[in-house]
Amino acid sequence: MNCASCHNPHGTASPKLVKAISTRELCFNCHAQYRGPFIFQHPPVLEDCFNCHQPHGSAYPALLKTPPIRLCRECHITFHNINFTTGGTAQTRINMMAGSACVNCHRLIHGSNNIQGNLFFR
Fold it and tell me: Which terminus of the chain has fewer Cβ atoms in its 10 Å neighbourhood, N or C?
């Protein structure tokens, strides 16, 4: 992967010499598995991949803009109400305390075809 993977140095009709009209289409050239359609679609995926990802590099996994738990909480203000001293199962407490927290359980964050309502569980 290099600059020319996404940008055309000789010019394009789109801003910043990007090869595609939308960032979503550009990203889906290499990441088609996230295109969908999914029965349960995560709304930011429908808008712009750059809502969550930083295309020119990141210190976080998967080129995320911020650490996963902080990124999720930018939109999802509430999260599982677990009293770590008395409530929740031991596994739930471990999942919530680990570094990625939300994505420890909610792994299919781009979308899912799970018809049982567990929108993003694998």
Answer: N
Scanning 29-78, the segments in alpha helix (DSSP H) are 43-47, 68-75
18 DSSP β-pair partners? 7
**For the chain (length 122 residues), average pLDDT per consecutive 10?**
89 84 88 89 89 92 88 73 52 53 77 64 40
Contact 106, 121 (CB under 8 A): yes
- How is the chain split into domains, by residue range? 1-30, 39-122
3-state helix, strand, coil split of the chain in percent (to 5) is 40, 5, 55
